[in-house]
Design goal:
Two copies of one chain form a homodimer. By secondary structure, the first copy, chain A, is mostly helical. Chain A is 81% helix and 0% strand. The interface between A and B is medium-sized, with 28 and 28 residues.
């Protein structure tokens, strides 16, 4: 039974990593579609969204089965619940990718113009936050998860700047309004991806640090020991 | 122990209802703030968001404790997991309310203008979806949850129409651009609230119908018996 338990935990962990790979790929493809205007990439994102939805349910069922048959306790129980929470956040990243793909399709019907927006930079910030949060998950690293929450890396500021630059462009150049609006929505989706990644970092903290510490999250500068899972 | 178990399940259920009340109130206040431009309501929304975040953690901890000490099975296990999932969706509604309040604050710095947008109608659709999903939760009613998913009630269409009306207004009347943009963001938040409510309906289905049926959700027209919780 001990071995079966370890195996089920490992399976759950592995499946969540596959899910995170799908979410990351979806974001990457959606942004590549934006950059290249190769709409076949948008099709891939839309197909991928269905695969992500399917895997979300599969992981929820694996976690439910593990809880029902193995009754994990303490650290393992919190890990299993963190998987369910992270699973939901990854699915939302898939939605964000689909929303980007949707707006790229609309963009494609208008002439290509230069806009005061740095989508590659926003992408790199979103993916950086995502990668850090997932690495914190993989390594059960509460300190890294904490750093994802405390270091915003400029995403909020960049999102605000982008919103304002595009707004004022819209006021000056009416011929690029559809392009500017759709691009504003794409920037908003990337900003939300970073938000979902921050939620994953919170899931990691819920898991590795437990109840007592969660309530003191606001005390910045605190350092707690990191526990490794398995 | 049986009594303690029933009590803990009831406590968890009650706390989630309080949480859903907070989320509903947040949306209501944010929209009232939009309609009356009484910014003290926005302040209440912002304070409320912190209360919602706090309660989200509290509910997650109650559910974790219940799983750790009572080892619920089958229907009760799925209920407890559905609480954790729904809890996350309610917190996101709180975020949406805060985002609306944020955009109302920006709107307030510009002259009031008439815009081709029906925020009361979008609000009523969002709150209707929310109320149906929560009622499905309270009554463990899978049929009702299913109807939340299958009847979209026109929200998607209204959201698209609003986006297009405001876009074309922006092209024609540059003097109302900031108002139109902020209102577009508010409409987007209400649309997302309805999306979170639909996610709650999915949580109810996960709970009351279990694994086998989830995989056949796409077969529309199917009717399953409703199981009542307790």
């Amino acid at each position: 039974v001990g071995l079966q338990f370890e195996q089920k935990l490992a399976d759950l962990n592995n499946r969540l990593l596959v899910m995170s790979g799908l979410a990351e790929q979806a974001i990457q493809r959606a942004v590549e579609c934006y950059q290249t205007r190769d709409l076949s990439l948008c099709d891939l994102v839309d197909h991928g969204e269905r695969a992500i939805d399917h895997m979300e349910r599969e992981i929820d069922e694996m976690a439910t089965d593990l809880l029902a048959t193995q009754h994990p306790l303490a650290h393992d129980l919190r890990f299993t619940l963190a998987v369910i929470k992270t699973n939901g956040n990854l699915e939302r990243m898939g939605n964000a990718a689909a929303s980007i793909s949707n707006h790229v399709r609309r963009l494609q019907t208008f002439p290509l113009v230069n806009l005061p927006v740095d989508i590659p930079r926003m992408t790199s910030l979103a993916r950086g936050t995502m990668r850090n949060a997932l690495r914190a998950f993989i390594e059960a690293d509460g300190d890294r998860a904490q750093s994802v929450l405390s270091v915003d890396g400029g995403m909020d500021r960049l999102h605000k700047t982008t919103y304002h630059s595009l707004s004022s462009l819209i006021e000056r150049q009416s011929e690029v309004i559809p392009q500017a609006l759709n691009t504003m929505m794409i920037a908003g989706s990337l900003w939300r991806v970073a938000g979902h990644a921050r939620n994953i970092a919170e899931d990691v903290i819920f898991w590795v640090r437990g109840a007592d510490v969660i309530n003191h999250l606001q005390h910045a500068g605190n350092r707690w020991t990191t526990r490794n899972h398995r």
